[in-house]
Amino acid sequence: MYTGIKHLHVLLAVLSVVFLITRAIWLLRGSDLLQRKWVKIVPHVIDTLLLIAAITMVSMVPWLGQPWLWEKLVMVVLYIGFGFYIFKFAQSAATRVAGLVGAVGCIALIAHLALSKVPFVLS
Description:
The chain has 123 residues and is mainly alpha-helical. It has one domain. The chain is built from 4 helices and no strands. The longest helix is centred in the first third of the chain and has 28 residues, at 2-29. It is globular and about 45 Å long.
C-alpha cells in the first residue's frame, strides 16, 4: 500500500510542478488561458491530493526522527510561498522569473532529499 501511495505522490508532485511552470509561462506571455475556470481549479485539486498522499505516507512511518523530512517540509512551504509570490505579488516579468527560479530550486532540493534521504542542514 505504501508503494502505491508513494507512486501517486510522485505523480501528483510532477503534475503540480508542470502546472506551476505552465501557468507561470502563460502569465509571462499574458495568455488568456489563465482566466479559464479549470486552470484556476485543477492546481488546487492536484495540490490537495498531493498533500493527502504525503500525510498518508508520513502516517505510515516514524517521521519525527527523520531530519530529511523536516527539511523537505520547509522546502515545500518555500515552494508554496514562491508560487504565491509569482501569481499574487510579483509585478514585473523579472520578479516573476525570479520567483519561478526559486520555486524550481525548491523542487530540485525536494527531489534530492526524497531520493537521497540525506538532509543538508539537520545532518
